[in-house]
Design brief:
Elements (H helix, E strand, L loop, with lengths): L10 H23 L12 E11 L5 E5 L5 E5 L5 H16 L8 E6 L4 E5 L4 E4 L5 H12 L4
Antiparallel strand pairs: 1-2, 1-4, 2-3, 4-5, 5-6
């Protein structure tokens, strides 16, 4: 018994799928071009925060400082703390794209709803760390709670 080859999609179905995609792209583009901004998340007041500064030292070592006191809070070794390093690489890339240096601090804040957010004070970029799961969030939480080294 010979097997049958799968039938191609009918022209009508392919046209319908294409139309949905085109109308979706046009709709989203028109909203964005009209100035529409999605509503901001309501996280509540900041209940705990710290300004952080990151410094590449040597051989992949990164020092993390409390930007207000100047105290060193952590040393991120090259083979460790990959989540923090990945987030900071992304934030640094966004600054470079806007020709902004690394002097301005980053704000790490816990909000009333429990969310932990890292904000770039130089370019108004932020990352809600809760989205990456409790283990990754905890790596940044250690920086929020760390004492001087």
């Amino acid at each position: 018994m010979a097997s049958q080859a799968p039938r191609p999609l009918s022209r009508w179905i392919a046209s319908a799928i294409g139309a949905v995609v085109v109308f979706t792209v046009i709709g989203v583009a028109s909203l964005r071009l009209s100035g529409y901004e999605p509503p901001a998340e309501h996280r509540g007041a900041v209940v705990e925060s710290r300004l952080l500064r990151f410094e590449d030292v040597r051989d992949g070592l990164v020092y993390v400082y409390d930007a207000e006191s100047g105290n060193r809070l952590a040393e991120l070794a090259p083979a460790e703390d990959s989540f923090i390093r990945g987030i900071m690489r992304s934030m640094a890339r966004a600054r470079r794209a806007r020709d902004v240096g690394m002097q301005a601090p980053f704000l790490l804040a816990r909000h009333a709803d429990g969310s932990l957010v890292l904000s770039d004070t130089a370019i108004s970029n932020e990352v809600n760390l809760v989205a990456f799961g409790p283990t990754n969030e905890a790596s940044f939480e250690t920086l929020l709670l760390a004492g001087p080294r």
